[in-house]
Amino acid sequence: MGVGVQARFFSFMRVLVLAIALPLVCLFGFYANYALLVLALVAGLGMIFARQRLEIGLAGGMFWAVFAGLGLTYGIAARAPGDLLLVFNLLPFALYPVLATLLGGAAARPEPARLLARLALAGVAVGAGLALVDGLVLGADRAGYIVSDPIRLSNTVLILAAFAVVLSPAEEGWRRWACFTAPVLALLVILLAGARTALLGYAPVFLIALFLVLPIRRALAVTLALAAALGLATAALFALDLVPERIAGLPRLLGALLAGEEIGDKSLAGRLELYRTGALLFRESPLWGHGWVHLADAIALHARPGYEDIARLPHLHNELVTFAATSGLIGVIAYGGLLVLPPLCAWRSPRDRYRRLRLHLALVLSAGYFFLGLADTMLIFELHMTLFVAWTAIILNTLRVPAAAPDD
Questions:
Q1: 289: left (phi > 0), else alpha (psi -120 to 50), else beta?
Q2: Cβ-contact 169, 176 below 8 angstroms
Q3: d(C-alpha 273, C-alpha 173), whole Å
Q4: Where is the O-antigen ligase-related domain (predicted)?
Q5: Rounded Cα distance, 254 and 179, in Å
Q6: How buried is residue 2: exposed, middle or buried, by Cβ count under 10 Å (0-12/13-18/19+)?
Q7: What's this model's pTM, rounded to 2 decimal places?
Q8: Close Cβ partners of 93 (under 8 Å, ≥ 6 residues apart)
Q9: pLDDT tens, residue order, the chain (408 aa)
Q10: Cα 319–314–343 angle (5° rounding)?
């Protein structure tokens, strides 16, 4: 390939990655995972032919260490050669350097922060539009199945909305304040989807985002204004009977938990049983766990009578518990390392004019994955594993001053 052809090829690949990872991710749904992996593999082949050196860095090294550690535990737990194929689920971690190298070229664009702000806000708008169509037009009980599922749609929109808030300083005038509509749209999606995990993570994630980008007094004022707007929107949805019972019954459920009464919610009772089972599995194999492919069998072996249904689940409805049960102590270290990775690498990144923005985005990314992983899976779920790698690559590599034009 000639130099001009190479430049056009990699530029086109960057556009596709940014489009699928931000504005179009909700539209692609589960297919966003496969699309991003295919793009990374094709870009990697292009780099081989172009003899382009990969940018590995600290982030790439940490992702490779996680890939090797988790892959080792999967190999130890394998009972048949076919079980080793599950290691390919970890492929996004291995492909980070390819995405980092590819997206590094986007740093040459003028005002990359402004571009990312608009892409993130567009992604929130697309997600809200899908939820409205699925919930109001098609009449789905829980919006989201039209493209993926309610949990994935809600979690994706929530993190994109947090990105939009953090990136708001890059905008000016009405466009800057438009970024603060993202939390309202995110709540709309969560309520229409009946995603309780996303609802519980909503407040801490957006409080962190607001206090990162605004002075304390202004952050408090914006928080109160958003709370009022969200309250009105929620009241309207309740009045129109558009809120799923999973959300409408949440206050009663929390009251029963606090009062020590019997939990009438089968879903929550099942999750608590999964946590108990996960603790038993970790104690049985604390170093490298039971592996992923045989997790359902291990759950079925330890589940108490009356909870046989949970044995069909492919995870333990908690990120840390799932990592511990499937990969033992190695998995726990990998989980902690992944959450620390974005802010650590942003902190150690060049001290240019985008460093603070990189750090703020990295913090809300890790915070979002932490809170959303308390009652579900994120990092170990294929779609959000790939998105975590792609979003980390975007944060660390598109928001920087090119070496040829150092910041003064």
A1: left
A2: yes
A3: 51
A4: 184-335
A5: 32
A6: exposed
A7: 0.89
A8: 63, 64, 66, 67, 70, 385, 389
A9: 577 888 899 999 999 999 999 999 999 999 999 999 999 999 999 999 999 999 899 999 999 999 999 999 999 988 888 888 889 999 999 999 999 999 997 666 778 999 999 999 999 999 999 999 998 899 888 999 998 999 999 999 999 999 999 999 999 999 999 999 999 999 999 989 988 889 889 989 998 998 898 877 666 776 777 677 666 666 665 555 555 555 555 555 555 444 444 555 566 677 778 888 888 899 988 998 988 888 878 887 777 777 766 666 778 889 999 999 999 999 999 999 999 999 999 999 999 999 999 999 999 999 999 999 998 899 999 999 999 999 999 999 999 887 654 443
A10: 25
Structure tokens that stand for 292 in this block: 């992923």
> Amino acid identity, residue 377?
T
Which residue do the tokens 């291995």 mark?
Answer: 94
How many residues comprise the chain? 408
